[in-house]
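Side project, low priority. Logging it here so it doesn't get lost.
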Amino acid sequence: MEIPQVVRNYVDLFTKDTLDAWTNTFAPDGTHTSPNFPKPTPARELKEHFLPFFDAFPDTNFEMVGLHAITNNLFVWRWVFRGTNTGPFRNHLATGRKVEVPGCEFIEIRDGKVSRVQGYTDRLTLLSQIGLAP
């Protein structure tokens, strides 16, 4: 199965400098969900949701490990996030530590737009690498 352009755009545009364009890949009722937050984040709130992350790790880089079709409308993006914690993160001061954290996202599309994303990040690895967990 071929990866649709909207999915490729979703992956390519996920940076601080292109958050507006990235959020435009979502349907108006689209959502992003992660175990890090108690409820799905609506598309209209995604920029505000992710800006603190990019501020905490301004040199963020997502290396693509894989991008695969599961069905005609469901795709998985596997990645490794690398960055340096030079800004506050979740009410903690910057540590200056570098991180390397694996994760993935299941991206569902409907009518040419991203309708739902379920993301998974190795949160314990992230917290231990910046010194907030053993």
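Brief comment: The first helix runs from residue 5 to 12.
Revisit when time allows.
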